[in-house]
Amino acid sequence: MTALIEIERLTKRFGGFTAVDDVTFSVAKGEVLGFLGPNGAGKSTTMRMLAGFMTPTSGTARICGEDVVDRPVAAKRHLGFLPEGAPTYPEMTVTGFLQFCGRARGFHGSALNDRVAHAMALTQLEGVRLQPVETLSKGFKRRVGLAAALLHDPAVLVLDEPTDGLDPNQKHEVRNLIRAMAPEKAIVISTHILEEVAAVCTRAVVIARGRVVADATPAELAAKGPTMDAVFRALTLPEVEAA
Ligand SMILES: Nc1ncnc2c1ncn2[C@@H]1O[C@H](COP(=O)(O)OP(=O)(O)OP(=O)(O)O)[C@@H](O)[C@H]1O
């Protein structure tokens, strides 16, 4: 299996506080890695460093073999990143925003229009295509962000809570979409929803206080206790309490 994401000893300190502490894992093509942990565990910080949005204090991250710090443009070519929250440029319409993202990715003319139309179809945004992003509900804003991440059909997807704010039907659709794309890509999703891990992930990495406390398949994790909730608490609470 080819590792499309390679994270080695990644660390981020904010002053004297270590938010991400010596994190190592890799993700191969075909894998959907669930990145789990309690609030403040360091998930978003790890994902931001992987996406080249934040410089690590130490350690390395590579996307399709390209170091995100030394070769940021080459690494980002292979990456679709859905950050936390809503897309920027809220006054743009959905179509306008996605066209802007597509142009930034180097698409023009009919190729640009095809890309935007395809991404909108995948994320079911056609009904709101002419609406300004700021007027959309949270779930629709999330899907606009997801469409922007998928636009260039990248080999690597890093999705920070992709189903946050979606209703159950939309969650189902987004999980189906992730599953459908999975064979051709390496995907990392962070989530608080334990059922999502069983539903879409082939592997799970659990972090607490910035450190990896488990790296296993969903079935291996589930076998560690009576419920996924209990396993999650056993893995993460001692770390939180010890801090
Ligand atoms: N720019 C920053 N400056 C200082 N501290 C920060 C900064 N960004 C994050 N932190 C801290 O680093 C820790 C990890 O934050 P992070 O957002 O990565 O956690 P998370 O696992 O994504 O949490 P959540 O599940 O709540 O989104 C937190 O204690 C947070 O307050």
Polypeptide structure, described:
The protein is α/β, with parallel strands linked by helices and 243 residues long. It has helices spanning 43-50, 72-77, 94-104, 109-122, 138-150, 168-181, 194-200, 218-222, 228-242; strands spanning 3-14, 17-28, 32-36, 58-63, 66-67, 79-82, 156-160, 186-191, 203-208, 211-216. The radius of gyration is 18 Å and the shape is globular. The protein has 9 helices and 10 strands. The longest helix has 15 residues, at 228-242. Mean pLDDT is 91; it is low at 239-243. Residues 14, 19, 37, 39-45 line the site of adenosine-5'-triphosphate. This is ABC transporter ATP-binding protein. Belongs to the ABC transporter superfamily. Residues 5-234 form the ABC transporter domain. Keywords: ATP-binding, Nucleotide-binding, Transport.
Rounded to the nearest angstrom, the distance between the terminal CA atoms is: 37 Å
How large a portion of the residues is in β-strands, by DSSP E? Answer: 25-35%
Biggest sheet overview: 6 strands, mixed
Helix-strand pattern, N to C?
A: EEEHEEHEHHHEHEHEEHH
Biggest sheet: strands side by side, in what order? 6-7-8-3-9-10
Bound molecules: adenosine-5'-triphosphate
Helical content, roughly?
Answer: 25-40%
Count all strands and give the number.
Answer: 10
Mean pLDDT: 91
In the predicted model, the low-confidence regions spanning at least 5 consecutive residues are 239-243
| C-alpha Rg (nearest Å) | 18 Å
Question: What is the count of DSSP helices, taking H or I runs of 4+ residues?
Answer: 9
What is the 3D shape? globular
Backbone structural class: alpha/beta
